[in-house]
Design brief:
Rossmann fold; 7 helices; binds NADP nicotinamide-adenine-dinucleotide phosphate
Length: 257
């Protein structure tokens, strides 16, 4: 059976391995990334800056036109931002890329199955409800953890047909935005303790081939998590969905559909 699979962040790391593997299996794979050099040898590459809301919407429209029925949406795109960067819409980059693009792709493509690859099960970090754009006291780790917790709630918002997946420390990850000493330290740690990419993506193949019965499945490094975790609270998910829509409107980016 040929499936239509959209992969955000499919030009590098786990996403790229997934794109190439599914294409070899005969699936129709649409790959999203921002770097055209990396996109040269992946299937149906679409260049898009997923931290830009308008660009993300443009690519959603392009996909909908040609592939109106998406079987699986696999969400990998992320990038570390050591300093606070604002996008064209005035949003903090990590929030926009790591969380908001995933929100928009899920909502816009309406796939049968979504696999959101992030850090479910992690309880560190928090959502700064009164300062979602981290205008005060920004740090890279704070931004990553906040967007990670938002992605946990996104699973609750956009279920059924949703898998939240924390793959564990993996020998992937574009480290170029990081300072040199940190890059070196992570590379050494990954060599010693990181798992191979193939191992990290293995369960995703199973979910695509045999979609889970549960409306929402949360798997942290091989362990199925209970859904009553504080990080998956439905009231918080509703609050985030509401705040996200307000934000899209007030950023002047909402469009009537
Ligand atoms: N690696 C780990 O140990 C680990 C552990 C737990 C969770 N995770 C999570 O797993 C996911 C995948 O990780 P990975 O290590 O495979 O990442 P990676 O190798 O760094 O790949 C990131 C992907 O995101 C894309 N991307 C970044 N910025 C973009 C933008 N503005 N617009 C469009 N695409 C953009 C990159 O493509 P371009 O360069 O073409 O833009 C690339 O394809 C991430 O969400 C990560 O947080 C990773």
């Amino acid at each position: 059976m040929t499936r239509t699979i959209v992969i955000s962040g499919g030009t590098d790391g786990m996403g790229r391995a997934m794109a190439l593997a599914r294409s070899r299996r005969g699936d129709e794979v649409i790959t999203l990334g921002s770097n055209p050099d990396k996109g040269r040898d992946v299937p149906h590459f679409h260049r898009v800056d997923l931290s830009d809301v308008d660009d993300t919407r443009r690519v959603i429209e392009a996909i909908n036109e040609r592939w109106p029925n998406v079987d699986a949406l696999l969400l990998f795109a992320n990038r570390q931002a050591p300093r606070r960067v604002e996008t064209k819409q005035g949003l903090e980059q990590t929030f926009a890329l790591y969380y908001l693009s995933r929100y928009l792709l899920g909502k816009g493509l309406r796939p049968r199955l979504t696999v959101n690859v992030a850090g479910v099960g992690v309880t560190k970090g928090t959502i700064h409800w009164d300062d979602l754009q981290l205008a005060h006291g920004y740090s890279m780790v704070k931004a990553q953890l906040q967007a990670g917790r938002c992605n946990d709630l996104l699973g609750v918002i956009q279920s059924p047909g949703y898998v939240l997946y924390h793959p564990g420390f993996t020998r992937s990850g574009d480290l170029t935005p990081l300072p040199k000493p940190l890059r070196l330290a992570i590379r050494i740690a990954a060599k010693l303790k990181g798992q191979p990419i193939e191992q990290a993506i293995h369960p995703i193949h199973d979910w695509i081939d045999h979609p889970p019965d549960e409306p929402l499945l949360a798997v942290d490094r091989g362990r199925k998590l209970p859904l009553d975790l504080p990080t998956l609270r439905p009231a918080d998910a509703r609050k985030l969905a509401e705040k996200t829509e307000q934000l899209l409107t007030s950023a002047g980016t909402a469009r009537s559909r």
